[in-house]
Amino acid sequence: MAREITIPAAGKPFKNNATFCVGSGRLGLALQKEYIDHLKIVQERIHFKYIRGHGLFCDDVGIYRETEEDGKHVAYYNFTYLDRIIDSFLEHDIRPFLELGFMPEKLKSGEQTIFYWKGNTTPPVSYEKWAELVETTLAHLIDRYGAEEVITWPVEVWNEPNIAFWAGTMEEYFKLYEYSAKRERVDPNKVGGPVICGIETEKWLRAFFEHCIENNLPLDFVSRHCYTVGKPVRKGQFIYHEIFSPTYMIEELKETRKIMADYPQIANLPLHITEFNSSYVPVCPVHDTTFQAAYIARILSEAGEYADSYSYWTFSDVFEEYDVPRSAFHGGFGLVALNSIKKPVFHTFEFFANAGKELLYRDENLIVTRDDKRYVIIGWNYHDTRKGEPGPDKEYVLSIPSIGQQAILIKKQVGGNYANPLQTWSNLGKPRTLNKEQRKILMAASEPLQTDVKLFDEKGFYKVKLTIQCNHLYMLEILPVKDFTDTYDGFEPDEFFGLE
Amino acid sequence: MAREITIPAAGKPFKNNATFCVGSGRLGLALQKEYIDHLKIVQERIHFKYIRGHGLFCDDVGIYRETEEDGKHVAYYNFTYLDRIIDSFLEHDIRPFLELGFMPEKLKSGEQTIFYWKGNTTPPVSYEKWAELVETTLAHLIDRYGAEEVITWPVEVWNEPNIAFWAGTMEEYFKLYEYSAKRERVDPNKVGGPVICGIETEKWLRAFFEHCIENNLPLDFVSRHCYTVGKPVRKGQFIYHEIFSPTYMIEELKETRKIMADYPQIANLPLHITEFNSSYVPVCPVHDTTFQAAYIARILSEAGEYADSYSYWTFSDVFEEYDVPRSAFHGGFGLVALNSIKKPVFHTFEFFANAGKELLYRDENLIVTRDDKRYVIIGWNYHDTRKGEPGPDKEYVLSIPSIGQQAILIKKQVGGNYANPLQTWSNLGKPRTLNKEQRKILMAASEPLQTDVKLFDEKGFYKVKLTIQCNHLYMLEILPVKDFTDTYDGFEPDEFFGLE
Amino acid sequence: MAREITIPAAGKPFKNNATFCVGSGRLGLALQKEYIDHLKIVQERIHFKYIRGHGLFCDDVGIYRETEEDGKHVAYYNFTYLDRIIDSFLEHDIRPFLELGFMPEKLKSGEQTIFYWKGNTTPPVSYEKWAELVETTLAHLIDRYGAEEVITWPVEVWNEPNIAFWAGTMEEYFKLYEYSAKRERVDPNKVGGPVICGIETEKWLRAFFEHCIENNLPLDFVSRHCYTVGKPVRKGQFIYHEIFSPTYMIEELKETRKIMADYPQIANLPLHITEFNSSYVPVCPVHDTTFQAAYIARILSEAGEYADSYSYWTFSDVFEEYDVPRSAFHGGFGLVALNSIKKPVFHTFEFFANAGKELLYRDENLIVTRDDKRYVIIGWNYHDTRKGEPGPDKEYVLSIPSIGQQAILIKKQVGGNYANPLQTWSNLGKPRTLNKEQRKILMAASEPLQTDVKLFDEKGFYKVKLTIQCNHLYMLEILPVKDFTDTYDGFEPDEFFGLE
Amino acid sequence: MAREITIPAAGKPFKNNATFCVGSGRLGLALQKEYIDHLKIVQERIHFKYIRGHGLFCDDVGIYRETEEDGKHVAYYNFTYLDRIIDSFLEHDIRPFLELGFMPEKLKSGEQTIFYWKGNTTPPVSYEKWAELVETTLAHLIDRYGAEEVITWPVEVWNEPNIAFWAGTMEEYFKLYEYSAKRERVDPNKVGGPVICGIETEKWLRAFFEHCIENNLPLDFVSRHCYTVGKPVRKGQFIYHEIFSPTYMIEELKETRKIMADYPQIANLPLHITEFNSSYVPVCPVHDTTFQAAYIARILSEAGEYADSYSYWTFSDVFEEYDVPRSAFHGGFGLVALNSIKKPVFHTFEFFANAGKELLYRDENLIVTRDDKRYVIIGWNYHDTRKGEPGPDKEYVLSIPSIGQQAILIKKQVGGNYANPLQTWSNLGKPRTLNKEQRKILMAASEPLQTDVKLFDEKGFYKVKLTIQCNHLYMLEILPVKDFTDTYDGFEPDEFFGLE
């Protein structure tokens, strides 16, 4: 049965932080042409404000070196690659959300590394040298890009110190935070932590907050990560999981806010989810599916009520944590697959980037938003079909307050045969790398189906029916129309072969 | 009832001359940026070999001038614009099919003109000066572009001398032909005529052939025009007609070939239809419809059996014969509407440009073609809905000889909600000129719907079902596929959420 | 003998209006690709704010038409081309300085025309219809581009009504002004006149001012034109003149200001020179020379003291007043020659577009300007060599207040072998139209010679020697430099083969 | 004293192999955007046929991996990056000159590595697995790009096995060669070696030749490297050397040919110098100087007499052998410096790429070449100024057989203030990384000075004077000109202000 809903004419501000920040493969990959190609697409169609990736201080970015002077090892800072990377970010109107890590070869205190690309996770052999590295880097950025620009770039200390990303203890992380945050306070960047993933959350948050308060450390925002899947199950080159309800993430946000609320100094700080996704591995097929597009839409519809940002991990499949990708589609994190193919979830962000500033209606499958003379409706219907049959359609009959005698409804559809390049790639035989013809086919196959119809005011409302099939995503845009038909002298509808 | 057809494995060469030549607004318009923008699109997606437009010698191209020397008027030839025009043709890999006309101001013998842009249609005041103009122009082109290039450009003498394009008599046309064809024989371009439209066809063709034979005049090809509509009925700014069956044009071609066959010297000459379309006026809505896409497909499917080219009139709505166009859609001739919007019939040519070289099957609604490892099927279903209800669907079940165990079928659809920008423009209120947002909506609305499915060999055949709705056009491409699925260790279809 | 000059550290604002506006061929030419190509170059390198051309209401732009309704002729307004033209202006970040004229075919009261392209110069057959045309056009522009944008576009009534551009009397011009200015007052565009050229200046200005004052007509700015040559002498396809001193134009500006000063309501109005150049014909070689580059520099150095703009006539050789140009170089008005070749005077505007906001020094051959941390010096040395031998070099030794221990001086030179494509074209044999190789040679030949040297603070000053040869133009830019040489461990100057 | 030389009208073929191949940083760097930017510039202006770099099998290209199947390690080949790299080569119309090396992590037999990027130099732990890697890679390339294409790509086995690039013995290299060359013989690529640098040349060449002959191994070409400097002397971050005469390289080529001549099976094989340069370290300033431009010109003028190619090491400063480059200019190998700045020696290759096919004259400072209707003269004057004062100018007066009554001489100059961005960078303070303004200044500063003059036939000859200053390089192009001056009615030279 269709739900009949009368949309109110006014609502409340839509807290939509979908485009505040996006994740990236390690910064060294930002030198790659393919990375920049994807960034260009993402910025043209979605336009994120910030970008965050690991590896700022890893050796492939090349910043920290030592030279011998008079028999002593002296720090040498090389910003050739960092400048190139930041230049290309700014060219695409995106700014770095700086993550301080991991440990340069010359400052490491041990051999523990993470990932194929071997990010060293050990505490610095000298916290003073680390602090100097942070300070020198920020000072260089200000020198090159100007303080007015650089102070708008948030700074996070390390990544997920509560798991294998940090070979030290919690106390050692706090020490690292202290050295990092204090020094860089010289310039007024916003600094935050503890960047944890959802393991021992409460313990870490409380300890971190209390440490900062007691030691009067700078803390401008709180950050953490959210992934919404169960234990990884490896099968060959893939990893599969149970996938939790998207409300799982909403609950995590609420819980975090609740813990923060216990500390008056912290209660009202911004909360940045500096990574989120369903699966946290780059070889899980869910990322490439239309299910993901609908699933993430549910999160984007509500997360802004609790968090100031939630940074999708990641914008591109140019990514090497689990080695060089082995095929065009492989379950990578990206909004964009290799060869610049947009995945279904790309459009989730594109649609939310286009949402109106006012929220008129929201349920578990639909939001209705508006700007002055324009409605944007986004609908989704995720269903974990791995557990059995497809879920039922969601049907709506909406009565929307008219914004003019006549309007156009433009509908964009993701799901099934549309904007589903994973299926087309399967139909092409799942080729490892694509040739030109395959790329062209997939490029066309990755765009939503766009159709449009006329709407007419009926007693102050437009009537819009919407059926959302299982694992589909829709955006409906309504724009007022001035009809010029009467100005066409001699216009006879019949002679236009069925034109409406 | 669906027609069940078994396609043979081999056929005969598909005589497909759809991309040999295309028509253009007068050559002076080729200086416009919008014209070049459209040409770029057409060449990227269709790639015609030749382009033909009126007005080579009209005053806006600026070739023929006179200056005073010692009190005498002397010819002065200015090739500034001609060179710019031809340069931009060659840049887009298209060559001129030269039409000699109309009369420059300084050579006219009377005041008769045609069109808003006032092409002078009178015989030359001096045939010698005309011949010198022709000869000088061709010599200049050879000087600039090289003989090897220029001799591949066919030359036609004047346009439709049997109606208002020529203010002289038939005999005067023959005289013009003689002066033009003889002189320019100096260089070995192919020359032809009589470029008539379908009025008094037989009389003109026979008289022209006999005149050429008797006077031993050069004649390298025969050319004429075909339009397939009845009398124009003006209603306000539009003109409507009865539209004949597309076979009307096929019959005209057969008749022309029959007349040619009576003259041994002429029987085997190339026959170029240097203009064709349904309606011959640039304010007839049929040009903008999906009906036109299907209707023209029927002509392209067979015309190559009789004619060596058939040049669609025209590639672009940058056109001024009936004054500056008054709105984005206005019934213009173009494959491309103003603002670079592709019309439905654009895809007819795009699809035929992609047809295979071998013809396996043809009926009134379908052709099946192939190249070595690739099938291309084009289907259409035109129906003049102005006479009443929509026509019935055409349904097919095709058995196509397998070219591999597995294949992909890529289907492109034009009609209804797809590739139908005229309807979207109507939904937008029929705006006279488009703003950026409207352009973007229409740009997306003008592409065919592309979907794809897997095909599997069943006893040596692929089974393909196709339903062609009224006034729709389809292209189906079948490509063999090597399936790599087995190389994906751990691949579990369920985990891909319904991936097939 | 070199002039030794000590430049002061501070000066006064440099009244530099060089980039306020530039002239254009008739607006119908703005549809041409070549026109847009040139506009792009000009905007990238100079960036004018406004553009002004004739022919807004001429028939090729297609705005004013009439249709028959119930046997009556009714105005029909077609904005297809106007919208396209304004769109492309705004795309290149330039705005129209609207000139109302000339007379549409359907509103003309006589047959007088001007130019090859036959602009009709007669008063309207109905002043009411004219006023409606003006009003409807402005209302359309506001509807499409928004009032906030459109009201920044100045509006001038007609062009040079004191000579052959206006077939009416002075009184009829005042009537036209009244109808135009009153009606369009509906929206608050700035309106002005009388757009005269330098014939009977005082008579026209006084009569116009008095008429406006007496009749309380809107008058937001005063406009006139300045050309600085004597009687035209035709020789074949060229026209030559005596060329006056550039101070001739400065005197005209002063005189105009003096006349304005007699009317309190007018004394402080902006004065726009909506056309200026040396010669007023598009077949005078002076426009293409390095002499012109130096000559115009002298005008730009001082004209801002008296006029709020001075619009160089014109930015491009895409121009048809004297027929289609007959050759690559032909004495056209453009800053850019056909085929996108920059003329020497292009660089005059480029250099002044880069001038500093503060004027430190000015004489007849040199200005020294600065911004915060940057000097720009422009020097010129024009000399009419037609009267005999080249003029002497101008030699300077400048002492410029230091802006840092070390600086770089970047010198750009126009003249002689540099940025002198007219000479290279002559060396190529003066080809009528250019082939690709010739274009490439000329493209390189049209850029100034750029060289650079180090400057060092000597007792608070940089010493800069400058020799300006006859008919040369220089721009010297001084930027402070931080010298990193000491950070290069192991740097031995000798090993860099003479590096300084 | 100027040398007076009469150039003959005909000569012999100019054996000019300057553009056959060019060197590259390790192939993994070909994923970088900056690398591709430089490749684009190099191909547009020089257009090399092949490109050769190390590291095909290094782990960052990601080809060789192992997976566990049933407890066994099984080879897994990943061509994601290789395909991307080759795709971008072919997009820029350049083909790989394949160098087989270095050793993948999983096949290494020891820990020895070379360079900052740690190429493993040890023999394979299994020669069979190595051979399978070679074979699988070539088979994949053929599968993707077609045999017709791939068999034109030469294959070299390893790099400089006679020094630290190979941790094995000579015999082990021969074994590697045998395994590599035999297996890949399956497809008919050309294979060669021994890729030695100039240490123990004769010993290695004779042993290698004899080994191949005795064992009947495939050997399609001989390859070696040539560098022309003495022992490296490190000073801080730079390395300096004695630089030998360019004839040193010519002598090496002669010696190699002499050794080859002793073996009939080898005497006539192609000889490819797959690396050459002056200094063999990427931190030697000579690479960035105008001296280098002149010095390399001398080699290019003659090396083709002895070698079938000589591949400049390298096209770009995107290079990491000695760590990430520390500054814009740093003595890297590239023709193009970071930020797409062309170095002086870039133009050496550009000039030789434009040389005529016929050699009319050659001495130690000059070649005169021609094509049908075009002369190209290249002159150079290198001098090692580190040893004292600049060398004397080289002065020529050439009498060149006329190719028409009139001609244009286009002169391009490198040296001193022209095309010398190293000096401009020094004037800018030697910034480590460049900002936009600095890039723009350097971009302009890196182009040769182009000037042109008329030449006239004097008794069958053109007289051309040329003075080549110390460490300058010139290209003079002479093209016949048709003079149209007489067609300009009214042309008066005086009125063009000194036009010649």
- Our Rg estimate of chain A from Cα atoms comes to 25 Å
- Strands in their spatial order, largest beta sheet of chain A: 2-20-21-22-27-24-25
Number of strands of chain A: 27
**Count of DSSP H/I helices of chain A:** 12
CATH class of the largest domain in chain A: Alpha Beta
- Which architecture of the largest domain in chain A would the CATH scheme give at its second level? Alpha-Beta Barrel
| Beta-strand proportion of chain A | 25-35%
Q: What name is given to the CATH topology of the largest domain in chain A?
A: TIM Barrel
The total tally of domains of chain A equals: 2
Classified in CATH, the superfamily of the largest domain in chain A is: Glycosidases
The gist of it:
Chains A, B, C, D: Residues 9-458 form the Glycosyl hydrolases family 39 N-terminal catalytic domain. With 500 residues, chain A is an alpha/beta fold.
Overall description:
The structure is a homotetramer of 500-residue chains. Chain A is of the alpha/beta class and 500 residues long. Chain A is built from 12 helices and 27 strands. The first copy, chain A, has helices spanning 33-45, 80-91, 127-145, 147-150, 170-184, 201-215, 247-261, 264-267, 290-302, 344-353, 421-427, 436-445; strands spanning 3-6, 12-13, 21-24, 50-53, 64-69, 72-77, 95-96, 98-100, 113-114, 119-120, 155-157, 191-196, 221-227, 233-235, 238-240, 271-277, 309-312, 336-337, 341-342, 358-362, 366-371, 374-381, 394-401, 406-414, 449-456, 461-468, 472-480. The first copy, chain A, has a 7-stranded antiparallel beta sheet, with helices on one face. In chain A, strands 8-11-12-13-16-17 form a 6-stranded parallel beta sheet. In chain A, helix 9 packs parallel to helix 10 (344-353). Chain A is globular. The model of chain A has no long low-confidence stretch (mean pLDDT 96). Chains A and B meet through strand 24, helix 11, helix 12 and strand 25 of A and strand 24, helix 11, helix 12 and strand 25 of B. Chains A, B, C, D: Keywords: Glycosidase, Hydrolase.
